[in-house]
Structures are given as structure tokens and as C-alpha cells.
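Teaching assistant here, posting this on the class forum so everyone can see the example we discussed in section. The complex has two components, and the goal was to see what a joint structure prediction looks like when all of them are supplied at once.
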Amino acid sequence: MTRRTGPSFGRQGRAAHVFLTPWLLGMFLITLAPLLASLYLSFTDYNLMSDPRWIGLDNFVRMGADPRFWNAVSVTFRYVLISVPIQLAFALLLALVLDKGVRGLALYRSAYYLPSLLGSSVAVAILWRTVFGDRGIVNAALGFFGIEATSWLQNPATALSTLIILNVWTFGSPMIIFLAGLRQIPQAYYEAAQVDGAGTWRRFRHITVPLLTPIVFFNLVLQIIGSFQAFSQAHIISGGRGGPVDSTLFYTLYLYQQGFRSFNMGYASALAWVLLLAIAVITAINFLVAKYWVYYGDE
Amino acid sequence: MATNETTVSVAGVRVRRRRQIAGRQVLRHVLLLAFALVLLYPLIWMVTSSLKPSTQILADPGLIIRDFTLDNFRIGWNALPRPFSVFFVNSFIVTIGSIVGNVVSCALAAYAFARLNFRGRKVYFGIMLVTIMLPFHVLIVPQYIIFSQLGLVNTFYPLVAPKFLATDAFFIFLMVQFLRTIPRELDRAAWVDGAGPFATFWYIILPLMTPALATCAIFTFIWTWNDFFSPLIYLTATPAFTVPVALNSLLDSETQSGIGYLFAMSLLSLVPIFIFFVVAQKYLIRGISTTGLK
């Protein structure tokens, strides 16, 4: 115990608490307390005006019989399950093409990444509304190919697809993560495989694919969690209503309507807790299933 | 003679092969460029459309400006009860406040987690990781109730104050990961020289952390500038609007003829992000590559 490795344990502990003070305050006041408060509120009827009234499981029972809730669940699931795989497929495909050593890589990378940067903004949602409007450029482009114009945003069958396309449009950020992942694969593996006579396809199938699965998984978890919480695009495109006929009523949009339009704070809290549990369960499933397809080196 | 012929034909194959590769390269560039154009076309269209009279925007999917005008910007700027300068100033206040808050509070916490020994470190760190995963919506109702009880609706406190308390825990994690790549010998040397934890943090760690701080600042900027959910909830009076909320309000009052100024103001709202994108691109790309931020 003669080697001095730094200030005493006690001194470090005291210093640590000073450094951690802002975080500890935030953790208790801004995160933990509201988390528990919203759990409590989810068992109450509360409209901000009068005191919360305990109603047990009524909010959750009501949810089960609420067609708008089920519709929001369905819309959100469709949005996530369709847009995330397509988005990641685009991201992977372009990362593979760009990784081949294209001249002007930085320029392409920036061009493809720009939509990710702007995609969550209100401005782009406004643009999207116009682009897919009755007389927008999408209909004009389709008309050029002789395809009849559609009311993308007025038709409940197509309104959600405009939001799915918007999410796919932001494939740039997972693409950059894929590119970084491809860079991590040692060139020596490919050379060794080539010496052993493996062709392009086999090298891709047996080196690139397995070594990239952790990155695919990472992107998948991240994009799923993010897409479940999408809000602004649906709010702007439907004018905050989630229409037409609730076809763009994202879960978070319904939560917002209940909590901050109708001031059903109890019901909104219950909705939020269901969202939390759903995300937790889906992430857990993701991790469980990962065992079967994600490659983590030789174990 | 025979050998000579072979060399010629080998050279021929080589030339043909090289041409093939060159051809494939050109084709790849054409496809990549065409794809980039399709992706960015709506944005380019928004730029040129904002410079046309409103009545010409919807009818014309092309990029040619026949009657150049700045009216959309002039009218849009004053289309709400307050001019957009107010909303831009508000957005900047909230954004800069959030950046300072995140950088300071997360750097402090990250240093403690990465470098100091104390009781409960593992537990705290675990809690911190869990809070990263927490969807924001599960906190917003009670947070709103607290801030409205405190009379802070229509102020920037609900948006900025939490950042000073390191509630964007993701950045703590990012900085901890970064600090792990810095050799501990550096702080040991400082300790041997008699520097305490505070001096070590201030003189040794903080300067070395600059790249991580930059990543944190850049992503805070982008997220805060684009943020819509929280400002929509907390800022209900026009003088307090940030730019996205103002755009939303402009949209509510939109008519067919309003599309021009809606576009003009939307475009202006993207300019700061675009400038940031151009200036800080290196950090941005590095940040996403290493952490998976958007």
C-alpha cells in the first residue's frame, strides 16, 4: 500500500459527489420523480383543475375499449415495421456501394446524410405536405409517367405511406454508421479469403455479412426506439389531428391530444406507461433474438 | 514472334479490362448522382419555389424562376403577430442555453464516472444507462404539471433548465466512452504532482475532452433547434414561440396563397442547421460513426 495512485478514496468520493451534483439533482427531480408521478397519475383521473382522483385500473380498462388507442397502436406498428427495414436496407446498400472506394465519397456521404439532419424538422414536414399535396411534385412526376394523380394526404389508405417515405428518406445516419462498421473489418480477412479462392459473393457472404451484424443490430434497436416516438412529422402533416380518419394518428400524437389538448392527464400518463413498457419489451425481444443472428466473434 | 503476340493480346485484355472498370466507375457515379438528385430535389425545389410568387409554386414542379420575388420572405417575416426575428432570437436563446447546459453538466458527470472511485459508482452508472432508454413521453406529463405549478409555462426554463442537470444522459455516456480512450497515466501524473480532482479535471481532462464536447454541442444544437414536442407544449403565447412552433402556427393560418411565405420561413429555419452542417461536418460524421446519433 505504499504506491500512491491518487487522492484518498474519501477525497475522491467527496469530489465525485460535487461533480455529480447536477446529474443527481436532474436524475431525482427531472427524471425519477416524474417517472413515479406519472405511474401514480396513470391510476387517477386528473384534468389539472381539481385534485387527482384515484380510479384504480380504469384508465387501462378504458384503453382496452378505446378504438382510437388500438388504431394508434396499429398505425405506429405499421409505421415502424415498414419504414425501419426499408430505411436500413437503403442505408446498408449505399454504404456497401460507397465503401467500394468511390471518388468523391465525402460529397456523396454528405448529400445522402443531409436529409437525416433536416428530417425531423417542422420545415421539412411542411415541405412534405406540399410535395405530396394534390398539386405537389410527386403527382406531377407521376403524371409525367402517365400515372394518375392521387390525393396522398386526403386518402386514409395512402397518408401513412407519405410518413413512411419521409422516414426512409432519412437513411443517411444509419448509412454512416454502416460505413464506419465496414471500415472496421480488417482488410487482411478479405486478402486471406482471396488467397483461399473465395469469390466476391462468398467474401461478402462469409466476411462482410457476419462482421456487420452487430452494426445492423445496433441500427435496428436505435431506429425502432426512435421511430416509436416519432411525433412532429405526423403532427404537421395532419394539422395535429392525425387524420384523415386517424390514419396518421401516431401513438405519441394521440398521447399529446389526450394530455395537452383534452387535458386528460391521467389517461395520457397511462398511455405513456404503456409506451414505455412496449418499447422495453420490444427492445428485450430484440436482444433475445439477437443471439440467433448477431455475430460477436468466436466465443 | 509467338511471345510477342501473347504480350500484345494480354495488353489488349488489360486495356479492355481497364476500360470496363472505368465504364463501371462512370456508371456508378451516374447512378449515385441521380439518386442524390432525387433525394435532394424536394429541398432544392423548396429553395427556388420560395423565390417565386405563391400562385406559381404549386402549378410548377420545375426549378426555373420566371418572376423572381422576395415578397414571400418579406410577408412571411411579419405574417404572425410578432416578426420572425423574435422567434429566431427565442430559438437561439433556447439552443445556446441547452448547449451550455449539456456540455457543462455532462462533462462534470462523465469525469466522475470515468475517473473517480466512489461508493455506488456502478449503481449510479447503471441508473444513468437506463435513463438514456427512457422515452421522454413518460416524463412529460408530470414535468408539465411541475413547471406549470411554478408558473414557468411560456418561459424558456422548462426547456433549458433540465439540460443544466444533465438530463440528456446520452452525452454523459458518450463522454465516458471518450475518456476511456485517454490514458490514465495523464491524470496519475497530475495527481503525483499534487493536483486534486478539480485541478486535474480543469487542467488535464477538460482540454483533452474537446472532441467529445464538440460532438455534444453539435448534436445538442441540431436536436434543440429542430425540437418541436416540448416547445409546442410549453410555449403557447406568440412572443415565446421558437421557430418550429411559429411555423406550426403559420401553417394553421395557411391558405393556398400562403404557401409561398410558409416555404420562405421554413427555408430560413433550416439555414442555421445547414450552416452548421457545412462548418462542422467533420465532427458530425465522426460523432455519428462512433456513437450512432442521428
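For the discussion questions: The CA atoms of residues 251 and 262 of chain B lie 7 Å apart. The radius of gyration of chain B is 27 Å. Think about how each of these relates to the inputs above.
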